[in-house]
Design a protein that fits this description.
Elements: H1 10-20, E1 27-31, E2 44-45, E3 55-56, E4 60-63, E5 77-85, E6 99-103, E7 115-118, E8 122-124, E9 130-133, E10 143-144, E11 155-157, H2 165-173, E12 178-182, E13 186-191, E14 196-197, E15 208-209, H3 212-222, E16 226-229, H4 237-246, E17 252-256, H5 266-274, E18 275-280, E19 284-285, E20 291-295, E21 302-307, H6 311-329, E22 339-343, E23 348-349, E24 355-363, E25 366-369, H7 378-381, E26 385-389, E27 395-396, E28 401-406
Helix pairs in contact: 3-6, 4-5
Bound molecules: adenosine monophosphate (AMP) and magnesium ion.
């Protein structure tokens, strides 16, 4: 056994992770149906005007605004009805002085007309050949002018934009059915440990079900990655090196377990065989035995996380370290979880000299400790969020106002 010779601070770990991050360069073309949440790889410029033609914004009558100047309810102006214009059916007629055309919302404004009077401010004659206009129409009224939304040549999407529903709508509006986006990072996920088996079967003595593969997979999928699960590896350096090789074409490799001193630093030895350790051991609780390395240093290098085996340590550090790293890799903006400030319901004594992430449950606007142990997944699954206790603080008294970061 080799004990941790030293740990680095959380800040230092974050700094090293940031400087090791190489945002993904690979791109792909996806259909708009599949574009939600993806990151645009290039500017998108419109080849057309939107709307492509001037159109009515109301159901009513296309008129010459000049004809209606004197219109009032008691002294309406009477116009001759020339045509009925429906959506998708441009009119070939020209509106001249004293005439108008019935027009539907979204239908092309006929030549000559420069305003629309809404139907509520009009009345048709009995025989349907004339229209009384009860109010003056200003030029441009209720008209959606050609190119008012987007002009040909306008940039509708900038490279790096996250494609929200509205941005996908803007791409559709200019007539494109697909968009170039950055590829989602492929994240190889692998659990280590002789005792770890797939859920679904029966446990033999000494075995436990794999938790980390699923928590890590869920985190990866939720933050812009593609989780690629691999079979759990046995606790030998040779097996771990084989596993590293099997994961070599991923954009990011995440192992769990085998990185604490009790297992002879298996991950440390495997990393030494295939790459370079960037840090191993962080002054946080839970999650101290977390490693970060670069695998395959010669031609290409793949970032590697060695997460703790304890499920709560693993997931906690996945939130704190893996999520920011993965999002930067995927070119997504930082995740900003919601926080609330509430009083603490019970005193917490914290490990000295380690930055602690302490899970809490909320009850009636008060935060109660939820942390059981690093190995207990319910420390997290039955919590609403966590508070942070800095390394230099050892006690948080009952009643203290604390900032809870919500899951
Ligand atoms: P390790 O980091 O490999 O020393 O593991 C620490 C603890 O976490 C041990 O009790 C392991 O059995 C447990 N553990 C490791 N990997 C997993 C996993 N994938 N799912 C659930 N528990 C695990
Ligand atoms: Mg293990």
């Amino acid at each position: 056994m080799r004990p941790f010779t030293s740990t680095i601070s959380l800040e230092e770990a974050k700094k090293r992770l940031e400087s090791a991050n190489r945002p993904i360069a690979r791109t792909e073309r996806v259909r708009l149906e599949d574009a939600t949440g993806r990151v645009a790889a290039a500017d998108v410029t419109s080849p057309i005007d939107v709307p492509p033609f001037s159109r009515s914004a109301m159901d009513g009558y296309a008129v010459l605004s000049g004809d209606t100047v004197s219109s009032t309810r008691s002294a309406p102006v009477r116009l001759r009805l020339l045509d009925r214009i429906y959506t998708g059916q441009p009119s070939s007629l020209t509106i001249e002085r004293g005439t108008c055309a019935e027009i539907a919302t979204g239908a092309p404004l006929p030549k000559g007309a420069d305003a629309v009077v809404m139907v509520e401010e009009t009345a048709q004659s009995e025989n349907g050949t004339e229209v009384d206009v009860f109010a003056a129409a200003a030029a441009g009224q209720h008209v959606g002018r050609q190119a008012a939304d987007i002009a040909a040549g306008d940039r509708v999407i900038a490279a790096g934009d996250v494609l929200s529903p509205a941005r996908i709508g803007a791409i559709a509006a200019i007539g494109r059915g697909d968009v170039d986006v950055f590829a989602k990072p492929r994240v190889a996920i692998l659990s280590t440990g002789n005792e770890v088996v797939e859920p679904g079967g029966t446990l033999k003595p000494g075995q436990i079900y794999d938790v980390n593969r699923f928590t890590l997979g869920a985190v990866v999928a939720a933050h812009g990655g593609i989780a690629e699960p691999h079979r759990a590896a046995q606790d030998t350096v040779a097996a771990l090196v084989d596993s590293l090789d099997a994961c070599a074409d991923a954009d990011l490799i995440v192992f769990s377990g085998g990185s604490s001193v009790s297992e002879r630093d298996l991950v440390v030895d495997a990393v030494a065989a295939r790459g370079q350790m960037i840090f191993h051991g962080i002054a946080v609780r839970p999650g101290k035995p977390t490693a970060f390395a670069s695998i395959g240093v010669r031609n290409s290098s793949t970032p590697f996380f060695g997460m703790p085996g304890n499920p709560t340590s693993c997931l906690s550090n996945a939130y704190i370290l893996l999520v920011p790293f993965l999002r930067a890799l995927a070119r997504l903006p930082p995740h900003t979880p919601r926080t609330i400030r509430v009083p603490l319901g019970r005193r917490i004594a914290s490990a000295v000299n380690r930055h602690q992430f302490y899970t809490v449950r909320l009850r009636d606007g008060v935060a109660f400790p939820a942390f059981k142990g690093s190995g207990d997944i319910t420390s997290l699954s039955q919590a609403d969020g966590y508070i942070e206790i800095p390394a230099d603080q050892s006690v948080v008294e009952e009643g203290t106002a604390v900032n809870v970061t919500l899951f």
